[in-house]
Amino acid sequence: MSVAVKGAMVSSTMNTIATVIPVIRAVPLMTLLLLAGCGAPDAPPSVASDGAPRKFWNELTALCGKAFQGHITSNEGGGAAPDPFEGQALIMHARECSSTAIHVPFHVGDDRSRTWVFTRVGDAIQFKHDHRHEDGSSDAVTMYGGDSIESGSASKLSFPADAESKAMFEREGLTPSIDNTWLVDIVPGERLSYALVRPGREFRIDFDITRPVDTPPAPWGH
């Protein structure tokens, strides 16, 4: 084979190698770019966005150590039985506060059986009703409530009854309460509203947080 032919073959081979190597090198880079473009799948939404629970928690914490009087602003669908809230002094007291839990006794006249318990759970806030007898023992219907969901306001959260609460209502013959949703709305420098809603029932109390009142006695069992 002539030197000219051998030179041509070598030149052709080198050109082929020079063409292939950049392609081989480009494959991993192109793959990485494609993977980066796809991105990771969106994480599932949390029970409530972090912003609303945080603002709500900060506003509630600002009330710690203070007590406020409220009045009923809505009471529909309660039935024919006398309402235990009507005509009574209604006092909420942000009594115990930590970075993870806030205990708010709710006094109805001389009845000190109720304490609202707000607990931070991940990105949400859990709201429960702690009911006690005068001797401090737990009522058969106690620690019901649920985890927060968004309510269209940074300081207003909704708490639909959770599975545990629904099972207790069913067990205790309180079937209508299975559909309960509680709402707590804090308007800074104005009011805190507590509401219970379900089909055919609406109950709401507004507490004036501009005028603290004397702190009440400790709730039963605390």
Describe the structure.
The protein is an alpha+beta fold and 222 residues long. The chain contains three helices and twelve strands. Strands 1, 2, 3, 4, 5, 6, 7, 8, 9, 10, 11 and 12 form a twelve-stranded antiparallel beta sheet that branches. The model is unreliable at 2-49 (pLDDT under 50).
Characterize this entry briefly:
The protein is α+β, with helices and mostly antiparallel strands and 222 residues long. The protein has helices spanning 3-38, 51-61, 163-171; strands spanning 67-76, 90-93, 96-97, 101-108, 111-121, 124-131, 144-147, 149-153, 156-160, 181-187, 191-198, 201-213.
> What would you call the shape?
globular
Structural class: alpha+beta
Backbone CA Rg = 31 Å
The largest β sheet comes out as:
12 strands, antiparallel
- Helix proportion: 25-40%
- Let me know the average pLDDT: 83
Low-pLDDT windows of residues? 2-49
Strand content: 35-45%
How many beta-strand runs?
Answer: 12
* N- and C-termini, Cα separation: 104 Å
Order of helices and strands: HHEEEEEEEEEHEEE
Total number of helical segments?
3
